[in-house]
Amino acid sequence: MNFDVVGLGTVVVDHLVLLSHHPAQDAKTNIISDAYQIGGPVPTAQVLLSRLGKQCAFIGSWGDDQYGPLIAEELAAENLDLSGSRQLPGTRSGYAQVWIDESASTRTIACYRPEHWLQPVDLDESILQQARAVHLDGWPQATCLRAAQVAQQSGAKVCLDAGSLKPGMEELIPYLNVMNCPRRFITEYLDTDDIHAAGQELLQQGPELVTITDGVNGAWLFTESTRLHCAALPVLSLDTTGAGDVFSGALLYGILEDWPVERTLKFASITAALKCERLGNRDALPTLAEINAVLQTKELRLSRWD
């Protein structure tokens, strides 16, 4: 196979705006700094995987507006194969404004999700058939489902970073091997806040491995035989934007390395935490040496239950 991971999903240009504090409604505040970056759950995870030495291809689309060339150039610079991606004439690229509150370590996002996507007929299925793993975010619905079906047929692991509830999840989940989601997703999808019950329910719907993240409360991992909780690494958090995307990419790295689930969960938790110490997603990504240094020197508490 030519690719470790083929990703399909949303790609956006993020305009990061750092503020000392979030202004009240109908008020003003000064901007400390700002920067543009390429975001989206799948591209962010793939950039991490590429920097960690994995061969990655991204399948996505963007417009022919001022942001389209930036997306293509930045992703290509990270050694992602873009042969399955397309610029769609007459359309707008995805765009988001991310307001980062320095004092509260929170972020507020306003985004434009593209109205035009690659359709199933546009998929180069030969790229998907060359993958060890296919990484999805659930968008666009029909194309994502077709990609999962092709990946399953070719023997690739099908992985989903659920993020928020999207149309068609009940159709997609049965095709998954790996599912990562934040705590808010289980509330939206399963109408429960019980993480243990949600992990069990999601396993029954198809995936072999499920992770549920909850920020400073840590992360949970479920398989048929294992139930784990990993405490969060204490860090001075500056920017949580993309933390879940990074966790998902690091989780996939551990799975591709065929590590035990305990090491994989710790690795993903550490990688996401280290990202939060810096502003942005790509510039904030830790190196493998930085992650391993923490993995070897910091004792993250793992809890197991039946």
TrEMBL record:
One of its GO terms (molecular function) is 2-dehydro-3-deoxygluconokinase activity. It is an enzyme of class 2 (transferase). Gene3D superfamilies: 3.40.1190.20. Pfam families: PfkB. Transmembrane segments: none annotated. It comes from the Bacteria. Keywords: Kinase, Transferase. This is 2-dehydro-3-deoxygluconokinase. The keyword Membrane does not apply. Its EC number is 2.7.1.45. Residues 30-287 form the Carbohydrate kinase PfkB domain.
